[in-house]
């Protein structure tokens, strides 16, 4: 997947969890949890959804690397190509 | 013709409407004349023809002997040779004496003569009960007459119909009987100035409704309308159909009403068995069966000779209460 | 129409999930009802055959209105008493049974049903089975209205608004919370719990599992709060008619904040008995159904206590308002790292502020304090939860 595709995917999965969200409102460096009002259950669901779609297993210790779009894309991209 | 049109006020009694109709007919066509018992000098048993003798003279307002068969026969004869007689039989009770003339002559001569003779005869009769005149004088036999092919049977129940049905009846080449219910003569009402004629073929919905059709005619109309008012207070919306013409029946209006409401109560003052209500009910069953959402019901005269005592007579006639009861049972079965 | 909350007065029937003639058993969902708390699934608690549907889709009726009739065909007459749903509300006259088993009157004599012509025609058009309908017409005949009522369950009118009306929910919350503050003499206690052991265990647990199987700290809080009620059962139940009625189990109402505003606390039943993985799944499922509108009536009426966890983005301490007629509300604040005295040193430790709001008519501070201590203790041995 390209970075663009990863970015879209993350936003798509967030929108499934937060249906009223406007994906365009997230800046690359914004904290996604703040922007989309995601609590720990939402975030856990997001990680599970990412796992299901991309087969990438994000360990708990790395959750903080997913807090912004920029970091999330970088992290997942690296993991995908590892 | 010594007649001056007195100014006709628009508010009048049913009796007055009948008289105005007769005056209009007499004034318009010299072939029209009246025959009947006590219509001239006495002014009519119910005072319908009061003053007409003075106005139109003895040639045109003719008192007859006490013989219904004779003067109805004379009327048939007059009609056959081109006159336009209006024969008054005092009440339907006495018409039985002229039944043979009506059925076997008036109705059949056009047929048996192969159309060589028409019988454009108009017969007016008072009918019905409620005047405490007991067993021999209270019949409602409109249904019997409506059984006879060749007759047109009219039952004006409103001031308007009383005023204008006669004029149309005179235009009909067939023998026509107009029934005036005795309890209607004193009824007062307003004529709509815009109306100058009526038809003599259609029934009319006097009150539109959605829950049940109340089908009736003549003297029962106002009791039925009263019942509909009572029912509306209970939240039951009744439609009231005034038949106006008993033969030929306006099946279309009846069926349209029952198709809409899906329930029907027929109100007929005649004795229940074999009455006109039976004919109407059967027509509905034949042609609107699959629209019905409840059994057909009727409120009729009790099958006894009419009692003399007031409370007993009232109990034998359809009343608003019995109509309400029947309608309510169909809409809200208990 | 069941009472799905202490203050519910009416509900709108938005969907029938059965049709006439369907066989149902206890626990089946029979309809969906719209309330201030959103669309709630209504269950039946009897077995039988649906013989009459009385309320059409889209109609709003008061609590207690009979929605449908279920015939327990072939059962002994002795069993035919109205089955009352265990609605735990303090308004007994209103909390009527959801469905009443019809009296086993003599079945229409086998030969012929009375059906009016137009009713029969309409039923044929709609492919409805007339044999299970009861007629309201003359002589008990099935008439058009009876057939059309049955037909209505098949075609929901387009104007019915499904889903959550947040304004309505806010009104429900306002009513419940006002009542709570009016009637319940609250007392409040709090404690701070060292989560070092719990979170270390959890980290290890989650590291070995794929994302979908990982457990949130909230699950540990829930389990600990549930188990601790065994030691203090007087915090688990209801205050009704001047007395404490213990719950028939530990059914924890889990407070869920809905996106866009609104709060609902459906029950996780037997929370003390469920393993952690099951609790996590239950929590996840409830959150999803709360938002979507697929909660069940029994989930709203059965909580025996409520636990609220503000999560990692909430306040440090939460002191709650008891949801009547319950007698306690347990609160967990945000997990924070604070200086903590361990033996003789000071360390940063993850800790959580744990609070209890309790009904002073039933318990006192001493007992409440023991309860909090029990939770704290349980959280030190997470592997036993």
Q: Your description of this structure?
A:
The complex is a heterotrimer of chains A (82), B (334) and C (385). Chain A has 82 residues and is mostly helical. Chain A has helices at 3-17, 32-35, 40-54, 69-81. In chain A, helix 1 crosses helix 3. The two termini of chain A are 13 Å apart. The model of chain A has no long low-confidence stretch (mean pLDDT 88). In chain B, helix 9 (221-233) packs across helix 13 (320-331) and helix 10 (251-261) crosses helix 11. The longest helix of chain B has 15 residues, at 14-28. In chain C, the strands form 5 sheets. In chain C, strands 9, 12, 15, 17, 18, 19 and 20 form a 7-stranded mixed beta sheet that branches. Chain C has a 5-stranded mixed beta sheet with strand order 6-1-3-4-16. Chain C has a 4-stranded mixed beta sheet with strand order 2-5-7-8, with no helix packed on it. Chain C starts with 9 loop residues before the first strand and ends in a 7-residue tail after the last helix. The model of chain C is unreliable at 73-109 and 156-162 (pLDDT under 50). The interface between B and C is medium-sized, with 11 and 14 residues.
Compact overview of the structure:
The complex is a heterotrimer of chains A (82), B (334) and C (385). With 82 residues, chain A is mainly alpha-helical.
- CATH level 3 topology of the largest domain in chain C: Chloramphenicol Acetyltransferase
CATH-defined superfamily of the largest domain in chain B: Thiamin diphosphate (ThDP)-binding fold, Pyr/PP domains
Order of helices and strands of chain B: EHEHEHEHHHEHEHEEEEHEEHEHEHH
Radius of gyration of chain C, taken over Cα atoms and rounded to an integer in Å: 25 Å
The DSSP helix count of chain B reads: 13
Shape of chain B: globular
Mean pLDDT of chain B: 96
Q: Strand fraction band of chain B?
A: 15-25%
Q: Tell me the strand order in the biggest sheet of chain B.
A: 3-2-4-5-7-6-12
CATH homology group of the largest domain in chain C:
Chloramphenicol acetyltransferase-like domain
Strand portion of chain C = 25-35%
The major pleated sheet of chain C works out as:
7 strands, mixed
Mean pLDDT of chain C: 83
The number of helical runs of chain C is: 8
Q: How many β-strand runs of chain B?
A: 14
Described by the principal axes of the CA atoms, the overall outline of chain C is elongated
Q: Which sequence of SSEs, written as H and E, runs from N to C of chain C?
A: EEEEEEEEHHHEHHEEEEEEHEHEEEEH
**SS content category of chain B:** alpha/beta
- Biggest sheet character of chain B: 7 strands, mixed
| CA(first)-CA(last) distance of chain B | 64 Å
Query: Could you tell me the radius of gyration of chain B in angstroms?
Result: 20 Å
């Amino acid at each position: 997947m390209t970075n663009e595709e990863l970015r879209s995917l993350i936003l798509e999965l967030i929108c499934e969890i937060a249906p009223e969200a406007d994906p365009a409102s997230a800046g690359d460096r914004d904290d996604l949890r703040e922007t989309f009002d995601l609590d720990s259950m939402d975030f856990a669901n997001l990680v599970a959804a990412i796992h299901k779609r991309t087969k990438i297993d994000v360990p708990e210790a790395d959750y903080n690397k997913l807090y912004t779009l920029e970091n999330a894309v970088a992290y997942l991209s690296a993991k995908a190509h590892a | 013709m010594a007649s001056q049109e007195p100014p006709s006020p628009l508010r009048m009694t049913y009796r007055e409407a009948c008289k105005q109709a007769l005056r209009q007919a007499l004034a318009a066509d010299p072939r029209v004349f009246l025959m009947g018992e006590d219509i001239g000098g006495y002014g009519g048993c119910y005072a319908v023809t009061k003053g007409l003798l003075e106005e139109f003279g003895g040639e045109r307002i003719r008192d007859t002997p006490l013989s219904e068969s004779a003067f109805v026969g004379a009327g048939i004869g007059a009609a056959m040779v081109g006159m336009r007689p209006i024969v008054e039989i005092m009440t339907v009770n006495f018409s039985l004496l002229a039944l043979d003339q009506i059925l076997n002559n008036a109705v059949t001569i056009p047929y048996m003569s192969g159309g060589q003779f028409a019988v454009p005869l108009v017969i007016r009769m008072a009918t019905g009960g409620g005047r405490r005149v007991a067993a021999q004088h209270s019949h409602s036999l409109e249904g019997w007459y409506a059984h006879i092919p060749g007759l047109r049977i009219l039952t004006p129940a409103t001031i308007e119909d009383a005023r204008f049905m006669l004029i149309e009846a005179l235009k009909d080449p067939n023998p026509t009987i107009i029934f005036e219910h005795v309890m209607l003569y004193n009824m007062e009402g307003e004529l709509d100035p815009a109306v100058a004629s009526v038809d003599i073929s259609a029934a009319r919905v006097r009150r539109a409704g959605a829950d049940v059709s109340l089908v009736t005619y003549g003297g029962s109309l106002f009791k039925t309308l009263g019942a509909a008012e009572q029912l509306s207070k209970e939240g039951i919306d009744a439609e009231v159909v005034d038949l106006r013409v008993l033969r030929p029946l306006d099946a279309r209006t009846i069926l349209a009403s029952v198709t809409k409401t899906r329930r029907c109560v027929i109100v007929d003052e005649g004795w229940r068995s074999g009455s006109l209500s039976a004919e109407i009910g059967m027509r509905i069953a034949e042609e609107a069966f699959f629209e019905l959402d409840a059994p057909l019901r009727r409120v009729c005269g009790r099958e006894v000779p009419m009692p003399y005592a007031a409370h007993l007579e009232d109990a034998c006639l359809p009343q608003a209460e019995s109509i309400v009861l029947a309608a309510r049972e169909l809409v809200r079965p208990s | 129409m069941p009472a799905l909350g202490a203050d519910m007065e009416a509900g709108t029937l938005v969907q029938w999930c059965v049709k006439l003639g369907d066989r149902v058993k206890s626990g089946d969902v029979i309809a969906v009802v719209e309330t201030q708390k959103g669309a709630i699934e209504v269950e039946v608690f009897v077995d039988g055959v649906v013989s009459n549907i009385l309320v059409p889709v889209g109609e709003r009726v008061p609590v207690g209105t009979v929605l449908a009739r279920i015939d327990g065909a072939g059962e002994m007459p002795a069993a035919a008493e109205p089955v009352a749903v265990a609605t735990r509300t303090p308004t007994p006259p209103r909390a009527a049974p959801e469905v009443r088993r019809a009296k086993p009157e003599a079945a229409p004599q086998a030969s012929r049903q009375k059906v009016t012509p137009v009713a029969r025609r309409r039923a044929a058009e709609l492919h409805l089975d007339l044999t299970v309908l009861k007629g309201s017409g003359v002589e008990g005949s099935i008439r058009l209205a009876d057939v059309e009522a049955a037909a209505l369950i098949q075609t929901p009118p387009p104007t019915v608004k499904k889903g959550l009306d947040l304004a309505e929910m806010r009104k429900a919350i306002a009513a419940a919370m006002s009542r709570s503050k009016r009637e319940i003499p609250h007392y409040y206690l709090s404690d701070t719990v060292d989560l070092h052991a719990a979170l270390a265990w959890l980290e290890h647990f989650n590291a070995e599992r794929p994302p979908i199987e990982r457990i949130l700290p909230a699950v540990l809080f829930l389990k600990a709060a549930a188990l601790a009620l065994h030691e203090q059962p007087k915090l688990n139940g209801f205050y009704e008619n001047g007395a404490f009625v213990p719950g028939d189990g530990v059914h924890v109402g889990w407070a869920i904040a809905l996106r866009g505003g609104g709060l609902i606390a459906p029950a996780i039943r037997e929370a003390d008995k469920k393993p952690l993985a099951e609790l996590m799944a239950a929590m996840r499922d409830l959150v999803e159904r709360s938002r979507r509108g697929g909660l069940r009536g029994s989930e709203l009426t059965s909580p025996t206590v409520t636990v609220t966890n503000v999560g990692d983005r909430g306040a440090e301490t939460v002191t709650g308002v008891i949801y009547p007629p319950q007698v306690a509300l347990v609160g967990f604040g945000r997990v924070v790292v604070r200086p903590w005295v361990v033996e003789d040193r000071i360390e940063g430790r993850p800790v959580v502020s744990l609070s209890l709001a309790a009904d002073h008519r039933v318990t006192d501070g001493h007992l409440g304090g023991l309860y909090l201590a029990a939770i704290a203790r349980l959280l030190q041995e997470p592997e036993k939860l």
